[in-house]
Specification:
Strands 7, 8, 9, 10, 11, 14, 15, 17, 18, 22 and 23 form an eleven-stranded antiparallel sheet that branches. About 15% of the residues lie in helices and about 35% in strands. It is an alpha+beta fold.
Length: about 675
């Protein structure tokens, strides 16, 4: 195999050019190993055959990260693609380019990798061929399979993908169960890696030597999401999400699978930074000018329903009335919020809308007590946008039938962003076949993968952004379709209203280094009342609610509490009004998964910074290093932190607000009480 330094640099050839450069397969040889290493040479991906089965491994600094792991497919009607295979000649490319996110955690991105493409060819029968493409970054690996156009594999029906991940070195894992009824909305398990069951990704591992590894996927398009199923010991295998079809994936060649990603770091903060791989493995923006996609902060007719003070359905408790909407618009205008979310305005919520699977929803018809013309005109006059809402109860087929009319309706009223919802048990996604028969599918299966993208594209035609709840997991498609601004895909703040149990203090410290590795989450923070349904106490301090705006990123960021509660906590409300929803750059200052997390983010286009820290049920003292600030410049720091006697076992509202002058050389001790946190706004000095 030629060495990388002897190969003419490809400069990041387009994928089509790489595909045309693939060499002819060579004869079977078990001793053939193809290898590609990261630009800094520390991480290497190797591909070989063992007993004529394709097998890969990943090393870092010469030490195993992924021990030899098999690759293959179960193909319906065409047997197993795994045995009696050989590797063809490898071709190589390299890319080093910078690109700019229109919004995001970091404005400027670097896409720097080395790539290898290797044909895997059967030695018997029809000699089918599947190519493996591996890209190795300084922070991890992405690899995918390309199905070329060939006589034996035109109509490709995949029953199962047999990609394995054999974790090298004893490890512990943080994970949520996959394939169960509540989609992605589970509390995180923390177990030895050899006790994981079937998990959603991202799943995070920490080895005994401290190395952090996260497994996920990127560019999930027209394919089933995978669950990670433990086979034995620390050997895992992909298990594609269930489908109503006989096969889990059906595609016409040529096509590429999503990328399987392995990110690697020395610690939890490094893991968050390494997750840029997910974005870099997606295609660039396909929508053209996306200046109409804008981050925003919003309030909404939402929390009162979770408290059972208002209802989504019509009647005496109906929340989405004209009068309520105008009151919220007034509040948003007075306090500088960009938009008001209004849930429950459209016909279809009456009765058991979940049990009826949303069959009565009408996405362009309002209840009689909600006057969209009047509300939209009032909002426009006040300089406030309406954030739309489409709940489907998992009836994606009905939504697809009404999609154009629904998006046209919102476009007429200048709605810039729509929150979609798919509240249904796993396996409860409803659509119809060509004959009108009802078909049931999964939230993360191929059918729903297609559906979400259809919604995003329909919205883009009207310059509308999408914030999907009960979604398919985030795999970085926001790079390709920047109007896919956020999604849920984990337990959010509503579980503090009625969850059994509510989210414990460790929840956000888990999310930061698991779910947030995938992308933005509409967590809906800011419950300053610290009170849920029926007066239940939220296990959080007041300062922690502020910290969540920095720790849990979303470009559509909600102040979720009732307006009257913000009037009672004006000190806290000041930070909520100040903190941006979009960032120039992000730094993770400190953290340990499940224990604590401290983030610093700089305002997009500004010089001010914001810092947020959260801890688990343990009080914690740490020293903040402000070395991320520009040298020689002073900043005024306004600090909101847990006060004396605070914490979830004390006075949850105890909060100290103070100001200090800091520079890049400042080391500031700070304490977080049990279940607490802190938030800091840093403004450049004159």
């Amino acid at each position: 195999m030629p060495r990388l330094r002897d190969i003419a640099r490809a400069g990041g050839l387009p994928f089509a050019a790489l595909a045309s450069a693939v060499a002819n397969p060579v004869a079977a040889r078990d001793d053939v190993t193809h290898k590609v290493c990261s630009p800094d040479e520390r991480i290497c991906f190797s591909l070989t055959t063992v007993d004529e089965i394709p097998t890969y491994s990943v090393t870092r600094d010469g030490q195993p990260v992924i021990a030899p792991s098999r690759l293959g497919f179960m193909l319906r009607g065409d047997g197993k693609f795994e045995h009696s295979t050989a590797l063809g000649d490898a071709t190589f490319a390299e890319a080093d380019r910078k690109w700019e996110q229109p919004w995001g955690e970091n404005r400027l991105m670097r896409e720097h990798y080395r790539e290898m493409r290797v044909p895997i060819v059967e030695l018997i029968g029809g000699k089918r061929r599947i190519d493996l493409i591996a890209r190795v970054f300084d922070t991890g690996v992405g690899f995918r399979f390309a199905f070329p156009d060939q006589e034996r594999l035109k109509d490709v029906r995949i029953d199962e993908e047999l990609t394995e991940f054999n974790i090298a070195g004893e490890a512990e894992a943080w994970w949520i169960t996959a394939g169960e009824w509540n989609r992605y909305e589970y509390l995180y398990n923390h177990t030895p890696a050899n006790q994981v069951g079937t998990a959603h990704t991202p799943i995070t591992f920490r080895r005994k030597d401290g190395l952090h590894i996260a497994i996920h996927e990127a560019a999930l398009v027209d394919y089933a999401a995978f669950w990670l199923q433990r086979i034995d010991g620390q050997r895992f295998r992909t298990r594609l999400s269930n489908s109503s079809e006989p096969s889990k994936v059906r595609r016409t060649a040529p096509f590429d699978t999503p990328w399987r990603t392995i990110i690697i770091a020395d610690d939890a903060p490094g893991l968050y930074a390494a997750a840029d791989i997910t974005l870099n493995l997606n295609e660039p923006n396909k929508l053209g000018d996306v200046s109409w996609v804008r981050p925003l902060k919003y309030i909404g007719i939402w929390w009162a329903m979770h408290l059972d003070q208002w209802s989504w359905n019509s009647g005496p408790k109906h929340g989405a009335t004209t009068a309520h909407a105008m009151q919220y618009i007034d509040f948003a205008a007075k306090h500088g919020f960009d938009a008001v979310l209004i849930e429950g305005w459209n016909v279809g919520w009456d009765g058991n809308w979940i049990g009826d699977h949303g069959r009565n929803f009408q996405f362009a018809k309002a209840y009689p007590d909600f006057d969209m013309d009047k509300v939209a005109a009032y909002a426009k006059a006040k300089g406030v946008a309406i954030m739309g809402h489409h709940e489907t109860a998992g009836n994606s087929g009905l939504y697809a039938e009404q999609l154009d009319a629904a998006m046209d309706y919102y476009a007429r009223y200048g709605v810039p962003s729509v929150k979609t919802g798919y509240v249904a048990d796993a396996g409860g996604v409803l659509h119809k076949d060509a004959a009108g028969n009802e078909i049931w599918d999964w939230h993360d299966g191929q059918w729903q993968s297609r559906h979400h993208l259809e919604v995003v594209l329909a919205a883009a035609k009207r310059h509308i952004s999408i914030n999907a709840h009960e979604p398919i997991k985030d795999t970085g498609l926001r790079r390709t379709y920047p109007n896919w601004v956020s999604r849920e895909g984990a337990r959010g703040m509503e579980y503090q209203a009625w969850g059994d149990p509510p989210n414990p203090p460790e929840h956000e410290t888990n999310l930061a280094f698991t779910r947030m590795l995938a992308g933005p989450m509409d967590f809906t923070p800011g419950i300053v009342s610290l009170t849920g349904k029926g007066g239940r106490a939220v296990p959080s301090t007041l300062a922690r609610q502020l910290a969540n705006y920095v720790v849990i990123y979303s470009p559509v960021q909600m102040a979720a509490d009732l307006p009257e509660n913000y009037a009672k906590h004006l000190d806290a409300f000041e930070f909520i009004k100040r903190v941006p929803a979009d960032w120039e750059r992000t730094r993770v200052l400190a953290g340990a998964i499940g224990d604590y997390a401290v983030f610093a983010r700089q305002r997009r286009g500004g010089q001010d910074w914001y810092v947020g820290g959260v801890t688990d049920e343990q009080a914690r003292e740490l020293t903040l290093d402000f070395g991320f600030l520009p040298a020689g410049k002073s900043y005024r720091a306004k600090i909101w932190r847990d006060g004396p006697g605070g914490g979830i076992g004390g006075d949850r509202f105890a909060m100290t607000v103070e100001e200090k002058t800091v520079t890049a050389t400042t080391k500031l001790p700070i304490r977080m009480e049990a279940g607490g946190g802190f938030a800091i706004a840093l403004t450049p000095g004159r």
